Amino acid sequence: MKSPVKNSFPLGFPWQTQDPFLFCVYHLDHYPKGKEDMSPAATLEGRNLGNDFTVKDGWRMYHGQTIPGFPSHPHRGFETITIVNKGYCDHSDSLGAAGRFGQGDVQWMTAGRGVQHSEMFPLLQTEKENPLELFQIWLNLPKASKFVDPHFKMLWHEDIPTIEFEGGTVKIVAGLYEDVTAPKPAPDSWAANAENEVAIWNIHLNANTSFSIPKTDTPINRTLYFYEGSELKIGDNVIQRNFGIALDASHDTTIRNGRKDASLLMLQGKPLDEPVVQYGPFVMNTEEEIQKAMQEYRITQFGGWPWPYPDNVHPKEKGRFAQYPDGSLVEK
Questions:
Q1: How many CB atoms within 10 Å of residue 19?
Q2: What is the C-alpha to C-alpha distance for residues 309 and 208, in angstroms, rounded to an integer?
Q3: How many CB atoms lie within 10 A of CB 115?
Q4: 303-320 pLDDT tens trace
Q5: Which CATH class is domain 21-41+61-159?
Q6: Is residue 1's pLDDT more than 70?
Q7: How many CB atoms lie within 10 A of CB 285?
Q8: Which among 245, 251, 191, 177 has a CA at the least distance from the CA of 217?
Q9: In this structure, are residues 160 and 173 in contact, taking their beta carbons and an 8 Å threshold?
Q10: How many CA atoms within 13 Å lie on the side-chain side of 30?
């Protein structure tokens, strides 16, 4: 029987992806207790503030100067999907949308013709540590949708199905598993058409158990990311932690877990098969379109920045919430 494993590769920063995905990064930071202003209750000396990507004392400030995170920056031509398993993320954007989400929530943002946003990690707990675990995934938009209106959507963890099976769980952020369907993605997403078979699953396996992924007749790219555990077996292939596995989706795949609990992310989807030209936060089909995107951003700032600070965070006492561009508010 042919092995479903096409190849495996070490997980770097970011993780290697396949079309229609452009980028995937895994953040795991063991942040200390927070101060009242939601900054770390620890010295920031010795850090390259504004560009701190070196793990020091178990955590990073990223582009934050006071609070960890990513101050205002632009995107065009693709979507960001942010899955926050632990901790919280404060979102603000040039549409006037905002939110605080975490503990399993997912934010799905279509950048389309252009948007600015910030993603900051407020350290809300002052009496204990503030661990953060999140994935950010970039899903490409087809040429026909590169200039759609930006869109902001929250998938609250209460609404995201988590399927329990003998030996573990699978959280369905996108796609379907055993006829259980994820919440609808953003309306202009490549994932919005079921024929594209886009799936984003977070799989957790208990020690010495197995999990099967069914084959598909659609020619899709399917990648597993093994980020927590000891080792797995897929057919005759032994996979170590911190490796990715490109799978042949025309074959059923059975994952046999080893002696420790394991966690995996699965990304799959029908490829766009279109040219990709990327310059930082802009992803288009031609170099000319990239130049136009840069010029337009210089002139318009994609609508400007309506918030008081580029590293905007929301009041500490606020819970999980989403404020939409039309002014509607959802509080959890």
A1: 15
A2: 49
A3: 22
A4: 999 999 999 999 999 999
A5: mainly beta
A6: no
A7: 16
A8: 251
A9: yes
A10: 4
List all residues 6 or more positions away from 176 whose beta carbon is below 8 Å from its beta carbon: 182, 199
CATH class for the region spanning 1-11+162-274: mainly beta
Tokens of 115: 């948007």
Look at strands 282-284 and 237-240 and give their pairing: unpaired
Burial class (CB within 10 angstroms; exposed 0-12, middle 13-18, buried 19+) of 158: exposed
Q: Do 223 and 201 touch, CB atoms closer than 8 A?
A: no
Place of tokens 């984003």: 200
pLDDT at 2 over 90: no
For residue 291, report the phi and psi dihedrals to the nearest 5 degrees.
-60, -40
Q: Which of 197, 205, 203, 249 has its CA nearest to residue 223?
A: 249
Tens-digit pLDDT profile for residues 195-241: 999 999 999 999 999 999 999 988 999 999 999 999 999 999 999 99
| 223 neighbors 17 (Cβ within 8 angstroms) | yes
Q: What are phi and psi of 158, to 5 degrees?
A: -65, -20
Q: Does 1-11+162-274 match 21-41+61-159 in CATH topology?
A: yes
* Domains in the chain: boundaries: 1-11+162-274, 21-41+61-159
